[in-house]
Write a structure and sequence with these properties.
single chain, 444 residues, alpha+beta, Beta-Lactamase, Heat Shock Protein 90, 5-stranded antiparallel beta sheet, 5-stranded mixed beta sheet
Length: 444
């Protein structure tokens, strides 16, 4: 669940960060794109206002000449042309003296030539310089009457050379700032909505991952429990099979031999007591049968736990069971056993049992005439390989049968428990059983 959830959370966090960064860039791009348009609209508006003002006093300007009365009438006319609380006309002479200011009448008649803003820029000088050049726009800071604060203002001025006047008007640029703030606010709202949607998708995805992880864990737990029960059943079945085999060996072999030896010794005792018959020959026959019993007991004990595996090692034990298999089954066995290092007990026992089981299957089912047994060690690990020329069998079909495929399943589980590999291939005339253990499994 962590392997699925952590990358998902990191990816969603990265997406959210990218969305936020892109939104900031988008807002900046929108402001950059909109600001010139808004500024151009303000400039067109200001130029139009000034043209309207000049049009209103044009008759006085053309016909009156330098008549002071006409100039006063023109100033009053411009004073009344108000188009907003903070938007008005202003008039200065070429020396910077204020001739008309509807919002700051106390400045009228006083020179403002040295008036500067908070940054030290000469305001009136800039306006007059632009007017003398043929008129134009000036971006400057001015004390806003309605708020009493110094704010940014865009002004447009033109020159009336006959009267020596500079006429102009201006608009405060707070609308641009409001527009920028509106763009940022709307972008932030859109980003917040997008992030909320991403969070919703993330929660749904995390819930799906959590549900999937829980379902997978539950499934794997049930599968593991099923495999564990199946393995326990196979272990019990294997134990019962081994016990049945030992019991059969003891009953059909050792018990019969012991009963026969008992009868032979009883016969010899009768011969000795009656003084008839050849008691010596009878005893020799009994001793021969006793040696057979001892051989059977030794063989059974070796099948259960060969002492040779503990005393001499894996190669000698494998060689012995191959030789005994050939003697017992009359099948030609060719054993090719290489030099082996010291093999850990668990690995040696697993290889020995696998060889023992494979030879037992060949004797019982294969009808083979020749068996090639190879045991070698290399850098790739320890490998055991048995090949017979018997009748072969259906591997997949046998594994599907719980009882018939138990031996093969046990062999595979022995190898896989130690981290090894088990394989079997079968066809008429050639059946190959292979098992290998990697070097890591051969460390003590």
């Amino acid at each position: 669940m962590l392997l699925a959830a952590v990358p998902l959370v990191l990816a969603i966090g990265a997406v959210a960060w990218i969305v936020r960064q892109q939104s900031v860039q988008l807002a900046g791009a929108q402001i950059t794109a909109v600001q010139p348009i808004l500024l151009q609209a303000r400039q067109d508006e200001l130029k139009h206002f000034v043209q309207v003002g000049r049009g209103a006093i044009s008759q006085l300007y053309k016909n009156a000449g330098d008549d002071p009365a006409a100039q006063r009438e023109a100033l009053e006319l411009l004073r009344r042309m108000d188009f907003g609380e903070d938007n008005y006309f202003f008039v200065y002479d070429l020396n910077g003296k204020s001739l008309m200011h509807p919002r700051l009448p106390n400045l009228e008649g006083r020179s403002q030539w040295e008036l500067r803003d908070s940054a030290g820029n000469p305001i009136i000088q800039q306006l007059l310089g632009t007017a003398r050049k043929g008129g134009g726009f000036v971006d400057y800071m001015w004390n806003r009457p309605s708020t009493g604060r110094e704010e940014r203002k865009l002004g447009y001025v033109e020159l009336l050379p006959q009267w020596g006047w500079m006429i102009g008007t201006g608009l405060y640029l707070d609308n641009l700032q409001e527009t920028q703030a509106l763009i940022k606010t709307s972008t932030a709202a859109a980003v917040t909505q997008t992030l909320d949607q991403i969070l919703l998708v993330a929660c749904i995805a995390l819930a799906a991952v959590t549900a999937g992880g829980l379902a997978l864990n539950l499934y794997e737990q049930r599968a593991a429990d099923t495999k564990l029960r199946a393995m326990a059943h196979k272990v019990v079945l294997s134990q019962e099979t081994e016990r049945s085999r030992v019991a059969r060996e003891l009953h059909d072999g050792v018990s019969q031999w012991l009963a026969s030896v008992k009868f032979v010794f009883e016969s010899a005792l009768v011969q000795v007591e009656r003084g008839t018959g050849d008691a010596t020959a009878t005893l020799r026959n009994g001793l021969a049968q006793m040696r057979g019993v001892m051989a059977d007991v030794r063989r059974i004990s070796h099948d259960l736990r060969p002492t040779l595996l503990d005393d001499l090692g894996l190669s000698s034990a494998i060689e012995q069971i191959a030789r005994e298999f050939g003697e017992r089954s009359c099948v030609a066995v060719e054993a090719q056993i290489g030099l082996l290092p010291k093999i850990p007990e668990a690995a040696a026992t697993a290889m020995f049992r696998l060889a023992q089981e494979a030879l037992g299957n060949i004797a019982e089912h294969a009808q083979a005439k020749h068996v090639l047994l190879q045991l070698r060690y290399s850098d790739a690990g320890l490998e055991l390989r048995l090949r017979d020329d018997g009748c072969g069998f259906d591997v997949a079909g046998t594994l599907r049968q719980p009882r018939e495929g138990l031996g093969l399943t046990n062999m595979r589980e022995r190898m896989e428990t130690l981290g090894g590999h088990f394989g079997i291939q079968s066809a008429p005339g050639a059946t190959v059983v292979s098992a290998s253990l990697p070097p890591a499994a051969l460390k003590s």
